[in-house]
Amino acid sequence: MSRRVSLPAADDLFRPTADPAVDAAPQTAAATESRSATRKTPSGRVRHDEKMTVYITSEELLEIEHARLALRHQLGVAVDRGRLVREAVALVLADFDAHGDDSVIVRRLRGE
Questions:
Q1: Which of 89-92's residues contact partners 24+ apart within 8 Å by CB, and which partners?
Q2: DSSP 102
Q3: How many CA atoms does the CB half-sphere of 44 hold within 13 Å?
Q4: CA dist., res. 77 & res. 61, Å (int)
Q5: Are 77 and 71 in contact (CB under 8 A)?
Q6: What pTM value is reported for the model?
Q7: Where does 22-112 show beta strands of DSSP type E?
Q8: What is the pLDDT of residues 51-94, one digit of tens each?
Q9: Are 64 and 85 in contact (CB under 8 A)?
């Protein structure tokens, strides 16, 4: 009996998660608008197919953790750090969509 571990093939690891037939379908204006509206809200507690690594300082991590604990302790809202960050990103992107050059993110990135 071999002691070698059987690992999955690259095709198994990098398989597409969406139906290619759906992705290839022509987009209607309603579908595009619906997707745009969906982007403005965070995904919440679902299985996420994509991952993005972001490096932050220890102080930023502590601020996120303090906010998470305050939400839980003071308001009874239990969230993990990932959901908290997704909510924050959704708020910033919605503000950018609504206000463009006058959005908070543009002002902060410009150093205003």
A1: 89/42, 90/40, 90/41, 90/42
A2: G
A3: 3
A4: 19
A5: yes
A6: 0.57
A7: none
A8: 889 999 999 999 999 999 999 999 999 999 999 999 999 999 99
A9: yes
